[in-house]
Amino acid sequence: MNLFRSEEHARRWSGYRAEAAAGLLLLADAMDVMSVPRFRERLSGHYVSSAPASRPAFVERLKAVSRGDPFWDPTPR
Amino acid sequence: MPDPTQLDLTYDFILRTFVKHGQAPHFTDIGRAFGVSPDEGRRLLHDLMAAGLPNWLFPSTDLIVSFAPFNNVPTHYRISIDGQQKWFAQCGLESLAMSWLFPDKPILVEAPCLDCGEPVRVTVRNGVIEREDPRGIRFYVDVPLREWGANLPFA
């Protein structure tokens, strides 16, 4: 889970796998994913209790950002 | 809103300790914070770490390694606030979530690009990217989301 200077740098990295190309996100999209309540409300004082309820919004945001790519589907196969 | 559970309280104490000090508390600190014995503090820590959140201990110890979005062991994601670099992010993705813990502060994320070693710098305030250097930064993970839970440190 790393940041790269550009898409070219990410694709050139020794750990890059072409079959996992869907793991590439624009910085703005990554920020969008990390802006859902699951990450925004860690100081709420009720974080652990509310964590299960915050998961669907996280999954929906991932779906939207990735346009439904199965790489970002949390459901085990 | 119901009263917070003990898991909520333990989580909140650990997170706020990271925010303030840049380091995780020891279980004896947890015990002291809640007015219980060190052994009970240790139990509170292990109860929380078993809650299924992206937090983990060093294997076979009671020492916090990672507590999202922070890392207690230095990573290449260095976080600076007001010119002071004393925090490390768990990963590139969590580095972006750091700003929610420091309201109204510009959070500087600095890391070397794993391809070329040259710097990647992002400034985030209240969830807004104020600056990225160079422009065109990308996030990449090669592990599908459904496999993250099986081995979080690896993902």
Task: Report what the structure shows.
The complex is a heterodimer of chains A (77) and B (155). Chain A has a domain of 53 residues. In chain A, 48% of the residues lie in helices and 8% in strands. In chain A, α2 packs antiparallel against α4. The radius of gyration of chain A is 14 Å and the shape is globular. The model of chain A has no long low-confidence stretch (mean pLDDT 94). Chain A is mainly alpha-helical and 77 residues long. The longest helix of chain B is centred in the N-terminal third of the chain and has 16 residues. Chain B is an alpha+beta fold and 155 residues long. In chain B, 37% of the residues are buried. In chain B, the strands form two sheets. In chain B, strands 5-4-6-7-8 form a five-stranded antiparallel beta sheet. Chain B has a three-stranded antiparallel beta sheet with strand order 1-2-3, with helices on one face. Chain B is globular and about 50 Å long. In chain B, α1 crosses α3 and α2 packs across α3. Helix content of chain B is 26%, strand content 26%. At the A-B interface, β1, α1, β2, α2 and α4 of A face α1, α4, β7, β8 and β9 of B.
Keywords for this entry:
heterodimer; A: 77 residues; mainly alpha; 4 helices; 2 strands; globular; B: 155 residues; alpha+beta; five-stranded antiparallel beta sheet
| Main sheet summary of chain B | 5 strands, antiparallel
Percent of residues in beta strands of chain A: 5-15%
- Compute the number of strand runs of chain A: 2
Low-confidence stretches of chain A at least 5 residues in length (pLDDT < 50)? Answer: none
Strand order of the largest sheet of chain B: 5-4-6-7-8
Give the structure's gist in a few sentences.
By secondary structure, chain A is mostly helical. Chain A has helices at residues 7-12, 27-33, 37-40, 47-66; strands spanning 2-4, 24-26.
Topology record:
The complex is a heterodimer of chains A (77) and B (155).
Chain A: E1 2-4, H1 7-12, E2 24-26, H2 27-33, H3 37-40, H4 47-66
Chain B: H1 6-21, H2 27-33, H3 38-49, E1 55-57, E2 64-67, E3 70-71, E4 78-81, E5 84-88, H4 92-97, E6 107-112, E7 119-125, E8 128-133, E9 138-140
Antiparallel strand pairs in B: 1-2, 2-3, 4-5, 4-6, 6-7, 7-8
Helix pairs in contact in B: 1-3, 2-3
